[in-house]
């Protein structure tokens, strides 16, 4: 029996897997990794336990990320210099809004949150944190 050292969120279908985790020494998803970040806290457990590392890839198109786990850095408003980082699942947009989305909790504790993605020429929605940076989470290293 081998120890599990991480999980890749790769959608490649392997004939022997029977929709179960499999041992691998390579994956095409590893070529998409642009950064890694340390998880602080337990709100993403068991997907990403405290002090684990998440592998991050670029996230350019929101429409392709529905239901995906993302890492975002937000600030309270356009004038704030204080930033907050979250590991959440990208949910649906708020009805009637092009820029406000719900970030769903991925773990057993914690809460979801509404955030807004800046759109050129559109004024920010007051009281909704603004996303400054976002990455698609490609995997977790324990």
Outline of this structure?
This protein is an all-beta fold. It is built from no helices and 8 strands.
What does this structure look like?
By secondary structure, this protein is mostly beta strands. The protein has one domain: Ribbon (Umud Fragment, subunit A). Helices cover 0% and strands 38% of the residues. It is built from no helices and 8 strands. The chain has strands at residues 6-8, 33-38, 53-58, 69-75, 83-93, 100-104, 113-116, 130-141. Strands 1, 2, 3, 4, 5, 6, 7 and 8 form an 8-stranded antiparallel beta sheet that branches. A hairpin with a 6-residue loop joins strand 5 and strand 6. The protein is elongated, with a radius of gyration of 16 Å.
């Amino acid at each position: 029996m081998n120890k599990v050292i991480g999980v890749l969120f790769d959608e490649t279908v392997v004939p022997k897997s029977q929709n179960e985790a499999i041992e691998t020494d390579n994956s095409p998803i590893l070529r998409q990794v642009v950064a890694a970040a340390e998880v602080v806290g337990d709100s993403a457990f068991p997907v990403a336990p405290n002090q684990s590392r998440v592998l991050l890839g670029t996230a350019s198109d929101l429409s392709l990320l529905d239901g995906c786990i993302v890492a975002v850095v937000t600030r309270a408003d356009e004038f704030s210099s204080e930033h907050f980082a979250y590991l959440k699942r990208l949910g649906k947009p708020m009805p009637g809004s092009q820029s406000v989305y719900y970030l769903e909790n991925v773990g057993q504790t914690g809460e979801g949150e509404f955030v807004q993605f800046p759109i050129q020429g559109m004024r920010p929605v007051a009281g909704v944190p603004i996303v400054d940076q976002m990455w698609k989470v490609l995997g977790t290293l324990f």
